[in-house]
């Protein structure tokens, strides 16, 4: 692991009013690796995503992307984001192709008029996620897995080398989950750095090269098999979870 | 009276021609903007800003400045105050909106009452299509064209802002700036529509056309065509009806738009209430008669 980290989070602290959301979080994501982010609701997963994306400003600490300031990375279009389902308005009158095309906006002129290269990139991305046949369907009329693949395709069309996925397996059937997992592996093998938050602990070893246990701070960062050991999960979730799983 | 007379007869009067052009401009500009407002969930914000511009317009009148400047200043002031009240007290957003816009609107009413030449200013509140002067029309046309062109040229950015501001931020766009631009255009649109239907009814033109189009299509691009088409047709119908029936023109325009929405709400092919009932009952019948093939 000599490659320069794609994302470096250094001693990041975030407060919402009086509530401490992230407490001196430090971590690094490297190209070619999938990292699973595990933690209970309220553990700061979404805040961590937002901090990396730059929509939440840390009270202390810093985020660097590809060794530089995040604003430059955003302009370069390397940062791709797959939102949680709850955060998307599925009744919005856009087709799958429309949404994937928004991945190209950073590369277009001020009116965002797509050119040949943009259309080709979108076609290619749709092919990669196997949604070519559904390209003109309104996004609300997709299955849970197809919805997720739409947003992954947006990241591919964008040419993002860092992909952040917030709960991509929530509300997704097993087959789509396998498709998405395989796709993320392919993207990582092609050099992308991928951070995936998930509740699905059983699937984690197949998906991730490493895992992070988060409870406002990084409790552990290492091999998924080690991170998922009961005593470690107990620390992150509280003991009652062990009896439930 | 035959159909041709119905449409041609009123156009013998210059004031009717000006009224017609004014309504068409206001109807089209409001309708285009309304497509984003209904999707972002800014209907209340549209209501708030369109009322809150009143004191700005009156003050602009008093000092002899263009209405647009006063309107934009008070539009942003309203939004800033709403944010302030919401974020720094336990009052929820809908209450904050209600407090701020009604207070600013009241300030406008008080300013109207103490400003000489009241008749002109009362027209701002209730609209006065039939009293649009040539210079009013020029101002409306210039403002309307500016708002229309800005919205259309940046339509893809505004749509992305409405749909996924986080992604917009992640690819280096500035969602705050896009939101502020949309609010500024909203304030200018309010000025365009003041003459047509008045402060009180502007909000109808800012919501109904977009909501109507939303029930008719799953494509945002088509919404941007349907909304102004429906809105303009209703504006013309409303204006002619008001002429022949001798009723309030602004009120008739909005009534026509409300009637169009009601028709679409009931009879739209896919999203209409009746259409959905039929689809649902068909589906029930289909599922009892045949096994459902699981969709991937």
Element pattern of chain A in H and E = EEEHEHEHHHEHEHEEHHH
Count of helical stretches of chain A = 10
Mean pLDDT across the residues of chain A is 90
CATH class of chain B: Mainly Alpha
Largest interface by Cβ-Cβ < 8 Å = A-B, 35 and 27 residues
Rg calc of chain A: 18 Å
Shape label of chain A = globular
**Number of strand segments of chain A:** 9
Portion in strands of chain A? 15-25%
Largest sheet of chain B: none
Rg of chain B to the nearest angstrom? 21 Å
Which architecture of one domain in chain A does the CATH hierarchy give at level 2? 3-Layer(aba) Sandwich
Instruction: Please give the domain count of chain B.
Output: 1
Poorly predicted runs of 5 or more residues of chain B = 291-296
Based on CA inertia axes, which overall geometry of chain B fits? globular
Order of helices and strands of chain B: HHHHHHHHHHHHH
The CATH topology of one domain in chain A is Rossmann fold
Beginning-to-end CA distance, first to last residue of chain A: 34 Å
- Mean pLDDT across all residues of chain B, rounded? 89
The unreliable regions of chain A are 241-245
The multimeric state of the shown protein is: heterodimer
Structural account:
The complex is a heterodimer of chains A (245) and B (296). Chain A is an alpha/beta fold. Chain A has a domain at 1-78 and 192-245: Rossmann fold, CATH 3.40.50.300. Helices cover 36% and strands 24% of the residues of chain A. In chain A, the strands form 2 sheets. In chain A, strands 5-6-7-3-8-9 form a 6-stranded mixed sheet, sandwiched between helices. In chain A, helix 4 (116-128) crosses helix 5 and helix 5 packs parallel to helix 6. Chain A is globular. The relative contact order of chain A is 0.18. Chain B is mainly alpha-helical. Chain B is built from 13 helices and no strands. The radius of gyration of chain B is 21 Å and the shape is globular. Chain B has a single domain (13-289), classed as ABC transporter involved in vitamin B12 uptake, BtuC. Chain B is 82% helix and 0% strand. Chains A and B meet through helix 2 and strand 5 of A and helix 8, helix 9 and helix 11 of B.
């Amino acid at each position: 692991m000599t490659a320069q980290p794609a994302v470096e989070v250094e001693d990041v602290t975030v407060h919402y009013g009086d509530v401490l959301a992230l407490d001196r979080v430090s971590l690094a994501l490297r190209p070619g690796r999938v990292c699973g982010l595990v933690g209970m609701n309220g553990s700061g997963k979404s805040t961590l995503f937002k901090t990396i994306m730059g929509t939440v400003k840390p009270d202390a600490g810093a985020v660097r992307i590809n060794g530089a300031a995040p604003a430059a990375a955003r302009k370069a279009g390397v940062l791709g984001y797959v939102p949680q389902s709850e955060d998307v308005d599925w009744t919005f009158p856009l087709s799958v192709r429309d949404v994937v095309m928004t991945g190209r906006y950073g590369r277009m002129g001020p009116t965002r008029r797509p050119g040949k290269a943009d259309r080709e990139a979108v076609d290619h991305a749709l092919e990669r996620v196997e949604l070519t046949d559904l390209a003109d369907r309104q996004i609300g009329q997709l299955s849970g897995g197809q919805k997720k693949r739409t947003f992954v395709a947006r990241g591919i069309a964008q040419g993002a080398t860092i992909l952040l996925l917030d709960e991509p397996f929530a509300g997704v059937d097993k087959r789509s989950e396998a498709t998405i997992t395989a796709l993320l592996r392919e993207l990582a093998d092609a050099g992308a750095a991928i951070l995936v938050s998930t509740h699905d602990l059983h699937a984690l070893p197949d998906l991730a090269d490493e895992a992070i246990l988060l409870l406002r701070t990084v409790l552990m960062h290492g091999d998924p098999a080690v991170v998922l050991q009961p005593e470690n999960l107990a620390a992150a979730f509280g003991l009652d979870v062990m009896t439930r799983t | 009276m035959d159909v041709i007379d119905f449409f041609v007869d009123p156009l013998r009067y210059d004031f009717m021609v000006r009224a017609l052009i004014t309504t068409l401009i206001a109807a089209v500009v409001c309708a285009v903007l309304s497509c984003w407002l209904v999707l972002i969930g800014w209907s209340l914000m549209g209501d708030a800003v369109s009322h809150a511009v009143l004191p700005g317009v009156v003050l602009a009148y008093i000092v002899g400045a263009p209405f647009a400047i006063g309107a934009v200043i008070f539009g942003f002031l309203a939004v800033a105050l709403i944010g302030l009240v919401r974020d720094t007290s336990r009052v929820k957003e809908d209450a904050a909106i209600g407090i701020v816009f009604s207070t600013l609107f009241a300030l406008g009413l008080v300013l109207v009452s103490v400003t000489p030449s009241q008749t002109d200013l009362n027209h701002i509140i209730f609209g006065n299509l039939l009293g649009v002067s040539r210079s009013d029309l020029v101002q409306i046309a210039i403002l309307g064209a500016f708002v229309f062109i800005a919205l259309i040229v940046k339509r893809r950015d505004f749509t992305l802002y409405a749909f996924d501001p986080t992604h917009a931020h992640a690819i280096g766009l500035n969602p705050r700036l896009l939101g502020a631009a949309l609010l500024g255009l909203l304030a200018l649109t309010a000025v365009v529509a003041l003459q047509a239907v008045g402060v009180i009814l502007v909000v109808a033109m800012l919501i109904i056309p977009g909501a109507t189009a939303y029930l008719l299509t799953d494509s945002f691009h088509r919404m941007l065509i349907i909304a102004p088409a429906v809105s303009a047709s209703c504006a013309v119908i409303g204006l002619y009806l008001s002429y022949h029936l001798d009723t309030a023109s602004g009120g008739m325009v909005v009534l026509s738009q409300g009637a169009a929405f009601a028709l679409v709400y009931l009879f739209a092919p896919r999203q209409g209430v009746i259409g959905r009932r039929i689809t649902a009952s068909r589906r029930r019948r289909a599922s009892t008669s045949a096994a459902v093939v699981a969709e991937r």
